């Protein structure tokens, strides 16, 4: 990407919508956006219009393979971390040397593409999705590891109908809010005003955030995973669980993905090596992640901030915590999702 070209995400913030997108969103409910000018509601969830266009196209044309692995998350749940872990697990026979591993020179988003960002060649979001086939070069590995932030209800039918595996990652919504608020202001920097935490908080609590409402996003995958027909298809993970018990989660994740660790691998510390390679401290300090950019034009370093559980304590007032905790209790804890 040429230096003077705005990044795709800068375009989200700056540009008037092309006619095609104006037609697409013309009858949809609209609210003010976070990094984007406006969010639009489609099938119950709030979208940036460019991502919505990708979704509608993918719903028509995307073909899932039975051995695909989908890493699904609500944004700011630790997608970058999950991508690194899953890539290392699945590809460890191909890349057994962790000193000279693709993650050393590539941001996890370059190794595990986003369905909604990377499945187009022009970076213009007006892609020729006819080429969206099983042979697309970005998606030619086997199994393909693909990530998305789409909610369950809106996944392309072939994802729901295939025997692919879905790993769903979520996180304490209070930390998601703080992480998303910082992320939004990094995207807005130099382009538009700062987004206040108070505004972010109010919108988040109303469910109006990219991919929101967060509770419906989480519940969609949680409820599907509870169905006996899906309990081998959907694995539900929480950021806090990985932090608390990384070895156990890594082991369970590898088993779920069909790449279990052997006794020999356990004995020689392969799991520890993967955790170290994918750790916040290691990844965030690599040259590629301090200076590089993603295919969709944002700096790799904005995916690494603090990487901790409970940073919300440094930002939210007592009243904010009480309000958000009530929403979490009513919308999630009631159904069995606890943080
Ligand atoms: P914070 O903003 O709380 O630090 P996503 O990858 O879904 O965009 O989520 C980004 C969040 O995950 C950020 O949280 C980021 O710091 C954290 N993160 C990124 N890589 C991580 C890693 N390897 N281990 C733990 N947390 C990580």
Key traits:
single chain, 339 residues, Rossmann fold, 9% strand, globular, binds adenosine-3'-5'-diphosphate
Question: Can you put this structure into words, describing what you see?
Answer:
The structure is a single chain. The chain is globular. A hairpin with a 2-residue loop joins strand 2 (38-42) and strand 3 (45-47). Helix 4 crosses helix 13. The protein has a 4-stranded parallel beta sheet with strand order 5-4-6-7, with helices on both faces. A 3-stranded antiparallel beta sheet has the order 1-2-3. The chain has helices at 8-14, 19-25, 49-61, 79-90, 102-105, 108-111, 115-118, 157-161, 173-188, 197-206, 214-226, 239-244, 246-257, 263-268, 270-277, 280-285, 287-291, 318-331, and strands at 30-32, 38-42, 45-47, 69-73, 145-148, 165-170, 234-238. It contains 18 helices and 7 strands. The chain has a single domain, classed as Rossmann fold. The longest helix is centred in the middle third of the chain and has 16 residues, at 173-188. With 339 residues, it is α/β, with parallel strands linked by helices. The termini are far apart. It binds adenosine-3'-5'-diphosphate (A3P). Adenosine-3'-5'-diphosphate binds next to helix 4, helix 9 and helix 16.
């Amino acid at each position: 990407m040429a230096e003077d070209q705005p990044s795709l995400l800068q375009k989200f913030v700056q540009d008037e919508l092309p006619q095609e997108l104006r037609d697409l969103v013309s009858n949809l409910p609209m609210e003010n956006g976070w990094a984007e000018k406006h969010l639009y509601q489609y099938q119950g969830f709030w979208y940036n219009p460019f991502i919505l266009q990708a979704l509608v196209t993918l719903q028509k044309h995307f073909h899932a393979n039975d051995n695909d692995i989908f890493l699904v998350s609500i944004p700011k749940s630790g997608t970058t971390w999950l991508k690194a872990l899953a890539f290392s697990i699945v590809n460890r026979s191909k890349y057994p040397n962790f000193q000279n591993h693709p993650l050393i020179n590539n941001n996890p988003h370059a190794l595990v593409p986003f369905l909604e960002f990377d499945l187009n060649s022009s970076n213009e979001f007006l892609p020729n999705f006819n080429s969206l086939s099983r042979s697309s070069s970005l998606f030619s590995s086997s199994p393909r590891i693909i990530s998305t932030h789409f909610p369950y209800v809106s996944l392309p039918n072939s994802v729901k109908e295939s025997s692919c595996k879905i790993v769903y990652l979520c996180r304490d919504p209070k930390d998601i809010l703080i992480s998303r608020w910082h992320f939004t202001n990094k995207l807005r920097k130099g382009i538009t005003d700062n987004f206040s935490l108070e505004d972010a908080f109010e919108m988040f609590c109303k469910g109006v955030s990219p991919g929101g409402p967060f509770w419906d996003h989480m519940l969609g995958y949680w409820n599907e995973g509870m169905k006996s027909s899906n309990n081998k298809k959907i694995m539900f993970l929480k950021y806090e669980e990985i932090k608390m018990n990384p070895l156990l989660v890594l082991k369970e994740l590898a088993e779920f993905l069909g790449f279990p660790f052997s006794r020999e691998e356990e004995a020689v510390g392969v799991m520890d090596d993967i955790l170290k390679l994918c750790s916040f401290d290691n990844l965030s300090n690599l040259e590629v992640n301090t200076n590089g950019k993603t295919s969709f034009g944002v700096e790799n370093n904005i995916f690494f901030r603090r990487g901790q559980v409970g940073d919300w304590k440094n930002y939210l007032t007592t009243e904010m915590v009480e309000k958000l905790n009530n929403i979490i209790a009513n919308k999630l804890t009631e159904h069995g999702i606890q943080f």
